[in-house]
Amino acid sequence: MLPLRFPRRWHLASVVLLLAVLLAMLMPAVWLFPHPGEFAGWFGEIDKWLHGVSFAVLAIWFAGLYGRSAYWRIALSLLAFGMLIEVCQRLVGYRTADWLDVAADVGGIAIGLVVGAAGAGGWALHVESWMAGTVQGDG
After folding, report:
1. Are 22 and 85 spatial neighbours (Cβ–Cβ below 8 Å)?
2. How many angstroms separate the CA atoms of 29 and 24, rounded?
3. What DSSP string runs through the chain?
4. pLDDT digits (tens, 9 = 90+) for 40-92
5. CA geometry: angle at 14 spanning 70 and 131, to 5°?
6. 65 with 2: CB under 8 angstroms?
Protein backbone atom coordinates (compact mmCIF):
# COMPACT_ATOMS: atom_id res chain seq x y z
CA MET A 1 0.00 0.00 0.00
CA LEU A 2 1.14 3.52 -0.66
CA PRO A 3 2.29 5.54 2.38
CA LEU A 4 -1.18 6.78 3.25
CA ARG A 5 -1.99 8.56 6.50
CA PHE A 6 -5.20 6.58 7.09
CA PRO A 7 -4.63 3.06 5.76
CA ARG A 8 -7.31 1.47 7.97
CA ARG A 9 -9.93 3.88 6.68
CA TRP A 10 -8.92 3.16 3.09
CA HIS A 11 -9.11 -0.59 3.78
CA LEU A 12 -12.55 -0.20 5.32
CA ALA A 13 -13.73 1.89 2.37
CA SER A 14 -12.36 -0.79 0.02
CA VAL A 15 -14.27 -3.55 1.81
CA VAL A 16 -17.46 -1.48 1.69
CA LEU A 17 -16.95 -0.82 -2.02
CA LEU A 18 -16.36 -4.50 -2.79
CA LEU A 19 -19.41 -5.53 -0.77
CA ALA A 20 -21.53 -2.92 -2.56
CA VAL A 21 -20.43 -4.28 -5.94
CA LEU A 22 -21.07 -7.86 -4.84
CA LEU A 23 -24.53 -7.01 -3.56
CA ALA A 24 -25.37 -5.02 -6.69
CA MET A 25 -24.30 -7.94 -8.88
CA LEU A 26 -26.43 -10.35 -6.83
CA MET A 27 -29.48 -8.12 -6.62
CA PRO A 28 -32.46 -9.47 -8.55
CA ALA A 29 -32.87 -7.61 -11.82
CA VAL A 30 -36.59 -7.41 -11.01
CA TRP A 31 -35.75 -4.87 -8.28
CA LEU A 32 -34.27 -2.60 -10.92
CA PHE A 33 -36.82 -3.43 -13.62
CA PRO A 34 -40.26 -4.16 -12.14
CA HIS A 35 -41.61 -4.91 -15.62
CA PRO A 36 -38.87 -7.22 -16.94
CA GLY A 37 -40.52 -7.77 -20.30
CA GLU A 38 -39.94 -4.12 -21.21
CA PHE A 39 -36.25 -4.17 -20.38
CA ALA A 40 -35.21 -7.81 -20.83
CA GLY A 41 -33.36 -7.26 -24.10
CA TRP A 42 -31.93 -3.93 -22.97
CA PHE A 43 -30.65 -5.37 -19.69
CA GLY A 44 -28.98 -8.27 -21.48
CA GLU A 45 -26.99 -5.79 -23.56
CA ILE A 46 -26.11 -3.38 -20.76
CA ASP A 47 -25.14 -6.12 -18.30
CA LYS A 48 -21.70 -6.53 -19.88
CA TRP A 49 -21.15 -2.77 -19.83
CA LEU A 50 -22.11 -2.67 -16.16
CA HIS A 51 -19.57 -5.38 -15.40
CA GLY A 52 -16.86 -3.61 -17.39
CA VAL A 53 -17.49 -0.18 -15.87
CA SER A 54 -17.74 -1.60 -12.34
CA PHE A 55 -14.41 -3.37 -12.65
CA ALA A 56 -12.75 -0.35 -14.28
CA VAL A 57 -13.84 1.71 -11.26
CA LEU A 58 -12.55 -0.96 -8.87
CA ALA A 59 -9.21 -1.10 -10.70
CA ILE A 60 -8.85 2.69 -10.57
CA TRP A 61 -9.80 2.62 -6.88
CA PHE A 62 -7.07 0.10 -6.03
CA ALA A 63 -4.55 1.78 -8.37
CA GLY A 64 -5.04 4.82 -6.14
CA LEU A 65 -4.11 2.84 -3.03
CA TYR A 66 -1.22 0.74 -4.34
CA GLY A 67 1.86 1.43 -6.42
CA ARG A 68 2.40 0.23 -9.99
CA SER A 69 4.41 -2.75 -8.81
CA ALA A 70 1.17 -4.10 -7.29
CA TYR A 71 -0.95 -3.72 -10.44
CA TRP A 72 -0.55 -7.38 -11.37
CA ARG A 73 -1.85 -8.36 -7.89
CA ILE A 74 -4.75 -5.94 -8.30
CA ALA A 75 -5.56 -7.54 -11.66
CA LEU A 76 -5.45 -11.10 -10.31
CA SER A 77 -7.43 -10.20 -7.18
CA LEU A 78 -10.14 -8.44 -9.16
CA LEU A 79 -10.28 -11.35 -11.61
CA ALA A 80 -10.79 -13.72 -8.66
CA PHE A 81 -13.47 -11.36 -7.32
CA GLY A 82 -15.23 -11.38 -10.69
CA MET A 83 -15.17 -15.18 -10.76
CA LEU A 84 -16.52 -15.25 -7.19
CA ILE A 85 -19.40 -13.04 -8.32
CA GLU A 86 -20.21 -15.48 -11.13
CA VAL A 87 -20.13 -18.43 -8.72
CA CYS A 88 -22.46 -16.56 -6.35
CA GLN A 89 -24.77 -15.66 -9.23
CA ARG A 90 -24.95 -19.33 -10.15
CA LEU A 91 -25.79 -20.26 -6.56
CA VAL A 92 -28.73 -17.87 -6.28
CA GLY A 93 -31.77 -18.98 -8.22
CA TYR A 94 -32.67 -15.66 -9.80
CA ARG A 95 -29.34 -14.80 -11.51
CA THR A 96 -27.28 -16.66 -14.09
CA ALA A 97 -23.54 -17.03 -14.36
CA ASP A 98 -21.99 -15.98 -17.65
CA TRP A 99 -18.32 -16.25 -18.58
CA LEU A 100 -18.79 -13.27 -20.89
CA ASP A 101 -19.32 -11.26 -17.69
CA VAL A 102 -15.84 -12.34 -16.59
CA ALA A 103 -14.51 -11.24 -19.98
CA ALA A 104 -16.17 -7.84 -19.44
CA ASP A 105 -14.60 -7.73 -15.96
CA VAL A 106 -11.16 -8.40 -17.47
CA GLY A 107 -11.69 -5.61 -19.99
CA GLY A 108 -12.69 -3.22 -17.23
CA ILE A 109 -9.70 -4.22 -15.10
CA ALA A 110 -7.34 -3.61 -18.03
CA ILE A 111 -8.86 -0.22 -18.79
CA GLY A 112 -8.79 0.79 -15.12
CA LEU A 113 -5.14 -0.17 -14.69
CA VAL A 114 -4.17 1.62 -17.90
CA VAL A 115 -5.91 4.73 -16.55
CA GLY A 116 -4.01 4.23 -13.30
CA ALA A 117 -0.69 3.91 -15.09
CA ALA A 118 -1.51 6.95 -17.23
CA GLY A 119 -1.69 9.18 -14.18
CA ALA A 120 -4.68 8.34 -12.00
CA GLY A 121 -2.65 5.91 -9.89
CA GLY A 122 -1.89 7.18 -6.43
CA TRP A 123 -4.96 9.41 -6.37
CA ALA A 124 -5.52 8.59 -2.68
CA LEU A 125 -2.27 10.38 -1.80
CA HIS A 126 -3.58 13.49 -3.55
CA VAL A 127 -6.91 13.21 -1.72
CA GLU A 128 -5.17 12.97 1.64
CA SER A 129 -2.88 15.86 0.77
CA TRP A 130 -5.86 17.97 -0.32
CA MET A 131 -7.75 17.07 2.86
CA ALA A 132 -4.77 17.96 5.05
CA GLY A 133 -4.49 21.31 3.27
CA THR A 134 -8.21 21.92 3.64
CA VAL A 135 -8.14 21.12 7.35
CA GLN A 136 -5.09 23.32 7.94
CA GLY A 137 -6.54 26.12 5.81
CA ASP A 138 -9.78 26.12 7.82
CA GLY A 139 -7.94 26.75 11.09
Report:
1. yes
2. 9
3. ----S-HHHHHHHHHHHHHHHHHHHHS-HHHH-SSHHHHHHHHHHHHHHHHHHHHHHHHHHHHHHS-GGGHHHHHHHHHHHHHHHHHHHHHSTT----HHHHHHHHHHHHHHHHHIIIIITTHHHHHHHHHHHHHHHH-
4. 555 556 889 999 999 999 999 999 999 999 999 999 999 999 999 999 999 99
5. 95
6. yes
